């Protein structure tokens, strides 16, 4: 019931969080795409210029390309992790104690669902899993969340 009739203040805050995510997530995605593109271009160019060498200079050059890509990749992951924490804190601070508890419980149930191999397989292959299996999950979630 706590999330079925949220206050206007809570709705407004959730919309603000959503808008922020809609602007930040594509930027992070673009950073990763650019890093991957630069990595592939540099590795391909360096690979052909170094492949016939008999020394280890080619490994050093390619190693530098990998290092630059990994640094950018780690930077994006660290930013995404900070963003995740920030979003969770924003949601929990905007909600009442009861709403926050229900939210965290639902989030944990969602994450636990990824341990269900049938569910993960169905999501990965975009196929619906058996109706009986879905009904079991729905009943379990309803008993836990409502």
Key words describing this protein structure:
146 residues; mainly alpha; 5 helices
Q: Strands, helices and their partners?
A:
Blueprint: H1 8-50, H2 57-94, H3 97-113, H4 117-124, H5 131-145
Can you tell me about this structure?
The protein is mainly α and 146 residues long. It has a domain of 89 residues. The chain is 83% helix and 0% strand. It is built from 5 helices and no strands. The radius of gyration is 23 Å and the shape is elongated. The protein starts with 7 loop residues before the first helix and ends with a helix. 1% of the residues are buried.
Short recap of the structure:
By secondary structure, the chain is mainly alpha-helical. The chain is 83% helix and 0% strand.
- Secondary-structure class: mainly alpha
What oligomeric arrangement do these chains adopt? single chain
First and last CA, distance: 8 Å
Overall 3D shape: elongated
As a percent range, the share of strand residues is: under 5%
| Relative helix content | over 70%
Helix and strand succession? HHHHH
Number of strands: 0
